[in-house]
Design brief:
Shape: elongated
Distance between the termini: 17 Å
Helix content: 10-25%
Number of domains: 1
CATH topology: Jelly Rolls
Order of helices and strands: EEHEE
Strand order of the largest sheet: 2-1-3-4
Length: 106
C-alpha cells in the first residue's frame, strides 16, 4: 500500500479468508481448496493490519497464516483483501485521495 508523500494510510476494512471461488484462484496450490468458503475472525485481521499500517505513508507485509495468527481451515487457499484511504498527514485537512483495494494471497 502506498500514499503520496504528504499523506498517510488509514485502513477502513480487511478480510482474510475465502468468500468466493474466483478471487485468487489461478495458480492455487493443489493441496489447498478454492471450492470452500472460509469466513474467519476478521476483527482480529483488521486490528493486525491497522496496527501494522495505519498512519504510515507506505506499508508492505506478507499476508501469511503466521502473520495473521490463523490456525483455522488450513486446507482452504485464503486471500487478504484490504480497503484503505490515503488521508492528509495534517489531520485538520479534509481532502481524501480515494479508496483503494488491494489483494494478497498466501
Amino acid at each position: 500500500m502506498q500514499c503520496k508523500q504528504d499523506e498517510k494510510i488509514n485502513i477502513t476494512n480487511a478480510f482474510w479468508g475465502r468468500d468466493d471461488f474466483i478471487t485468487c484462484s489461478e495458480n492455487a496450490p493443489s493441496n489447498r481448496s478454492i471450492r470452500q468458503y472460509s469466513l474467519d475472525n476478521n476483527v482480529h485481521v483488521i486490528m493486525k493490519v491497522k496496527d501494522t499500517c495505519n498512519k504510515r505513508p507506505t506499508c508492505e507485509f506478507y499476508a501469511t497464516r503466521l502473520f495473521l495468527d490463523d490456525v483455522t481451515y488450513s486446507q482452504v487457499y485464503k486471500y487478504l483483501r484490504v480497503v484503505y484511504k490515503c488521508v492528509p498527514k495534517d489531520s485538520t485537512k479534509k481532502k481524501l485521495s480515494g479508496i483503494v483495494s488491494a489483494l494478497w494471497t498466501r
